[in-house]
């Protein structure tokens, strides 16, 4: 009974916000900070784990959000039941939308999982489509717990904590998105541009197509990378490991399969991770950058950034800003956004704690 009461309290906190944390979360206008946001308030998920960025205020799906020029909403469409759509609330304000197909971390099949981050992308002039049907509101806080990173002479893997029965998010944890869901998102978006009854009729730039994903979703993005329609991809807190390292062995077959996937990458690529002690994807991101030689590649990692990133922070935090600039530059030709990445004095190059590598970009 106590566990059930705690779960109810959490959901009420999500629906109503919680004091100073809510006010701080709502004070998120303008450019996102490039350093990790502070913990804005202590909240617990329905399994009793801390939520890294505090309990966010609840917003109905049709509430316009995001720091970009086009406040964006979240919605579903009966013709695309296995996805959630993010788009500018007032389509009349936008002449042309780029397309970004998204895969969630853990391949969690809940399209509202990365709501804060994906709404931010959409607010910059994109039709963003996430794999996964609409999940429970509790999922909208984004990734909640940083995966354990094993390392030589490091602490042992902790024992898993108790799980609360009747977890309403459980179905979304056991159903996984796949690469075909991401491909379906692109197919649907392009088709909508030519359907006169669609609100997106004539509103989509069918040549401005991108994809991205976090962790497992980054792996799906790599699988999708051979799609000739893609003009840019994002591999966030993800990467293809091509070497055996401590506690993570790779067979020759696995390495060859990874290289075969990376050989299909044909569009500009951003790879972004945390550091080697907090992000299990750190070495995979490094290996992916080292292997890619024929396309423009931007690789960055931040000291102190964990695998869970900043996706659950207001407007997706620093990763929300970096990703918005990446797709705005690559898909929409925004030269102001390109300043985040171009030149020795690029914005991210000068940000304390960030480490940047590039190929074929200048």
Could you provide a short overview of the structure?
This protein has 362 residues and is α/β, with parallel strands linked by helices. It has helices at 2-16, 19-26, 115-122, 170-174, 179-192, 216-224, 252-262, 282-291, 317-332, 335-338, 347-350; strands at 72-75, 83-88, 97-103, 126-131, 204-214, 230-236, 269-273, 297-302, 354-359.
Structural class per helix/strand content? Answer: alpha/beta
CATH superfamily: Alpha/Beta hydrolase fold, catalytic domain
CATH C-level class is Alpha Beta
User: Which fold name fills CATH's third level, the topology?
Assistant: Rossmann fold
The parts where pLDDT drops under 50 for at least 5 residues are 1-30
Global Rg:
19 Å
| Average pLDDT level | 86
The span between the termini is: 60 Å
Oligomer: single chain
Q: What's the CATH architecture?
A: 3-Layer(aba) Sandwich
Tally of contiguous helical segments: 11
Q: Compute the number of structural domains.
A: 1
**What is the strand content?**
15-25%
* Strand segment tally: 9
The largest sheet has its strands arranged as 1-2-4-3-5-6-7-8-9
What labels describe this entry?
single chain; 362 residues; alpha/beta; Rossmann fold; globular
